[in-house]
Specification:
Chain lengths: 113, 119
């Protein structure tokens, strides 16, 4: 079955450490997205990519970085510059059309040690 | 800018009760509208969508009608079940053009409404 796989499900970060969250999709979607979800809040867009080797900042990109070297993969790095990284991170993908829904992974929960 | 406002929760209902979750939006351009559902510890799943005015999206007994005159997309279900307990998100997508002329959309989400259904 096609879908989006995020790993790991739980991740712990030490102070001053960079961590990378994995996102892989086999839906043949061009567009991929990273969101951050905090308790009681909606989803906020971190970065998005419409095509391989291209990506754009979302609403809260500071302290995060991404790469898009393959169509199937869109890893997110949470850098030490992100001072409040504890959150639930969701990856999504879609066809490049505004009427098409985004498909989501099951998320990675990041916590600070 | 674009924004989505949902009714504040949490919403607590008894099984078989009628459900309404209000959603209103502001958008530049002509958005597509979506409802997503999130079960505990999981990602979001598309529940239903509508792409033009007066369209009605429906799925699993849920429905919502795209009302351009009131800029609303309220979610309804006639008889809820315990298994409907989840967080519900309203979202909109507006058309954007990339350099190649292809239309794509960025989603703007509401803050989510927690629904709890008791037996």
């Amino acid at each position: 079955d096609g879908g989006i796989t995020q790993s790991p499900k739980y991740l712990f970060r030490k102070e001053g450490q960079n961590v990378t969250l994995s996102c892989e999709q086999n839906l043949n979607h061009d567009a991929m997205y990273w969101y951050r979800q905090d308790p009681g809040q909606g989803l906020r867009l971190i970065y998005y990519s419409q095509i391989v080797n291209d990506f754009q900042k979302g609403d809260i990109a500071e302290g995060y970085s991404v790469s898009r070297e393959k169509k199937e993969s869109f890893p997110l790095t949470v850098t030490s510059a992100q001072k409040n990284p504890t959150a639930f991170y969701l990856c999504a993908s879609s066809l490049r059309n505004r009427n098409q829904p985004q498909h989501f992974g099951d998320g990675t929960r990041l916590s600070i040690l | 800018g674009n924004s989505v406002t949902q009714m504040e929760g949490p919403v607590t209902l008894s099984e078989e009760a009628f459900l309404t979750i209000n959603c209103t939006y502001t958008a530049t351009g002509y958005p597509s509208l979506f409802w997503y559902v999130q079960y505990p510890g999981e990602g979001l799943q598309l529940l239903l969508k509508a792409t033009k005015a007066d369209d009605k999206g429906s799925n699993k007994g849920f429905e919502a009608t795209y009302r351009k005159e009131t800029t609303s997309f309220h979610l309804e279900k006639g008889s809820v079940q315990v298994s409907d307990s989840a967080v519900y998100f309203c979202a909109l997508s507006v058309p954007l053009l990339n350099a190649g002329g292809t239309s794509y959309g960025k989603l703007t989400f509401g803050q989510g409404t927690i629904l709890t259904v008791h037996p």
